[in-house]
Amino acid sequence: MEKTLLIIKPDGVQRGLVGRILARVEKKGFKISAMKLEKISKEKAEVHYAEHKGKGFYLELLEFITSSPCVLAVIEGKNVIEGLRKMAGKTNPLEADIGTIRGDFAVVVSQNIVHTSDGIESSKREIENFFKNEEIQEHILCTEQWTYGR
Ligand code: UDP
Ligand code: MG
User: For the chain, what is the domain count?
Assistant: First the structure.
């Protein structure tokens, strides 16, 4: 099934929001296939945010994402890439709808709590940057038939 990378950024971890964010993911019916707490290295951060190199916010973004541990998770589910982007809300928390993670928990764009992959290609690249294949569990939840049908 489709997979995406969820990062609970340093602000989400420091503010004690990990449990609440993961609870939303689980409540939706998405599955955690891998998860770890990691202080992201400068090298991995550069790979992860390569598309933003040269932009005005790039250096601040690298500095922030490497400043303190993040929760890195592979989340799996039907249309999970689009689904988790919707749950995260718009990049700028002030534009994000109330009910989304960013809309409910964040105020400024530079500290917007979560990252989620924006497409199939980026999700593959981003997951590979942070996880070895053997770290990802191919497991079936007993609730899946009640989430997706038989
Ligand atoms: N960002 C920022 N200032 C901006 C635009 C983006 O600090 O003007 C940060 C923000 O934390 C965002 C990240 O850079 O989550 C990556 O930007 P992108 O446009 O890829 O947004 P996302 O995919 O995270 O919604
Ligand atoms: Mg992005």
Answer: 1
